[in-house]
From TrEMBL:
It is a multi-pass membrane protein. The chain crosses the membrane at residues 37-56, 76-94, 114-143, 164-189. It comes from Parazoarcus communis SWub3 = DSM 12120. This is NnrU family protein. Residues 4-190 form the NnrU domain. The keyword Membrane applies. Its main location: membrane. Keywords: Membrane, Transmembrane, Transmembrane helix. It is found in: Membrane. GO terms for cellular component: membrane.
Amino acid sequence: MTALIIGLFLFLSTHSSRIFAEANRAQYIAHYGEKKWKLAYSIVSIIGLGLIIWGYAQTRLDPVYLWHPPVWTRHLAALLTLPAFILLVAAYVPGSRLKAALGHPMVLGVKLWAAAHLFANGTLADLLLFGSFLVWSIACFSSARKRDRVQATPRSAGRWSRDFIVLIVGVGAWGVFAKHLHVMLFGIAPFG
């Protein structure tokens, strides 16, 4: 459990620098440069992610159950992750109407992913992992929207053709992940 907690702290603290330490982040970038900032950010994030994965795998060997969710919540989680995948893709396809309307679709996708997994899992490790990401995504989205308003961030209208690409790629990625990768990586078949 310790590795999971340390990993969550490292990963989410680096990803929270714009939420809680915008001035310190800007000062670091001004002093050391953006490349060094990105390098340090990436190294700490990768170490944190590695510890999250390893720590979570270790907790699955001797899980501490807080509740036993009904089987139907697995299916609900699988369905809720579909829009999460679409939102994730929308973050990387420039010019989509979805990205223009939401501004930060990846953070919303993380929010859906975390909530979906909280519904379907009932161990202490699940609560720590998915609960932490849910709290982070709520704070991050709120902070990003506030920053957008203060900076009067312009958004293009976007094109429907880009949304079509987002939808096709998102649904395809979700299908491959749900059907093949989830069971390979985590030993759980979402629809099995």
